[in-house]
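pinned: reference chain
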Amino acid sequence: MVKLKEAKKSMTRKNHSFKVSNTYTIYGSLAEGTDLMEGILDECEKHNIRSGVVTCIGSLKKVGYVLFKAVNGLPSGYGRDIAIENPVELVNCTGFICEDENNNLDLHLHGLVAEEDGTLSAGHFLRGKNPTLITVEFSITYGNEIRASRSFDQDLGFKVINFSK
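pinned: its structure tokens
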């Protein structure tokens, strides 16, 4: 992968933002056993949401996530899958609903969890590896005017979300 410092020299990605004039919010909860990411994506499909922001709290039976790895102090991809095989409190979780390169619904989700002894862990959640323990309450804010597309950026060496109107 291209080093971030080298990539900055040739980056074509620019800061960008768009104002949404009509936004909507959905509130919901995921039942016991429902995967965190799959459950939120299912609710997005149900309400025809293709881009938005999600926040949630709750509890998980176990956790699967990754962190970026660094080489010489620069991000160089994601490290190995990390698992916590016991129940955790989902203290804070937030992410972006978007479409992938094939226009399939996708979710880029990060969160902070606490184990029973108070140990905190955080990272980039993995799809299919985070079943709900009791419940996960969530809210989704969306505006159909914005398109969020997540694709691999060769210069950065990561998937990034680009927004358009």
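why pinned: The CA atoms of residues 30 and 40 lie 8 Å apart. Residues 36-46 form the longest helix (11 residues).
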